[in-house]
TrEMBL record:
Family: Belongs to the TACO1 family.
Keywords in alphabetical order: Cytoplasm, DNA-binding, Transcription, Transcription regulation
Protein name from the UniProt record: Probable transcriptional regulatory protein B6N60_04056
Provenance organism: Richelia sinica FACHB-800
Top-rank taxon, per record: Bacteria
Molecular function per GO: DNA binding
NCBIfam families: PRK00110.1 (NF001030), PRK12378.1 (NF009044), YebC/PmpR family DNA-binding transcriptional regulator (TIGR01033)
A GO biological-process term: regulation of DNA-templated transcription
Subcellular location: Cytoplasm
């Protein structure tokens, strides 16, 4: 998980900047719509919706917008557009596998935008199934303020976790099966840990090591370009890269 975890940390830092541009607002509002549509439109009984609402509030999205997104997901309010969840797959520079989760009301527009992003940045948009077999969807809890790693291990095992990894000083990511995410989240909180995020994430089964500076720059530019597209919700890639190379390559 090393390469992806470092990238996830950088993405969280970038999210503050992205929020000012409205990009994060759009993503989080759409996440609420999907969560409300896939379960009951009541956060008390819908963990995915409750988590999406918490993220939206943390980003400063007004309550009116949140309520409107819930109503749209529940089918009680409509602006005329119908959002569809689609997963796209492709290869970046150096053969890095890239998985994209999109939410769109026009799949032709989304596919064209993705194809252009790949072709301009040394990658190729592939067919369905070309890289998804390299990834497994898992539940991930991000825990901050970890002072005792042994206690985190014990709490993680009690919560039914598969593994955990310290990604920064006092910050860890605990991984579990998708269906166990709510239980793990609850267990960690009951044990006194500060869970700052609980999400479903595609995690690579293997990694491609990137060591070339130009290749690294092209890859990160491709991922950044994909993430800036309005219809894109999440981008996951199976690269591993030294942190100093990643940081240097961000200055493209």
């Amino acid at each position: 998980m090393a390469g992806h975890s470092k990238w996830a940390n950088i993405k969280r830092q970038k999210a503050v900047v992205d929020a000012k541009k409205g990009k994060t607002f759009t993503q989080l509002s759409r996440a609420i719509i999907v969560a409300a549509r896939s379960g009951i439109p009541d956060p008390a009984g819908n963990f995915q919706l409750r988590t999406a609402i918490d993220k939206a509030k943390a980003a400063g999205i007004p309550n009116d917008n949140i309520e409107r997104a819930i109503a749209k997901g529940a089918g009680t309010w409509s602006d005329g557009s119908v959002l569809e969840e689609i997963r796209y797959e492709g290869y970046g520079p150096g053969g890095v596998a890239i998985l994209i989760e999109a939410l769109t009301d026009n799949r032709n527009r989304t596919a064209a935008d993705l194809r252009a992003a790949f072709s301009k940045n040394g990658g190729n948009l592939g067919e369905t199934g070309c890289v998804s077999w390299m990834f497994a969807q898992k539940g991930v809890c991000v825990v901050q303020g970890v002072e005792n790693e042994e206690k985190l291990l014990e709490a993680s095992l009690e919560g039914g976790a598969d593994s955990y990894e310290m990604t920064e000083v006092e910050t860890g990511e605990v991984v579990t099966e998708v269906g166990n995410l709510e239980h793990l989240n609850k267990t960690l909180k009951e044990q006194g840990f500060q869970v700052t995020d609980a999400e479903l994430r595609w995690i690579p089964d293997n990694f491609v090591e990137v060591t070339d500076t130009e290749q690294a720059r092209s890859l990160l530019k491709l991922i950044d370009t994909l993430e800036k597209l309005d219809d894109v919700q999440n981008v996951t890639a199976n690269f591993d890269m030294a942190e100093n190379l990643m940081t240097a390559s961000m200055a493209y």
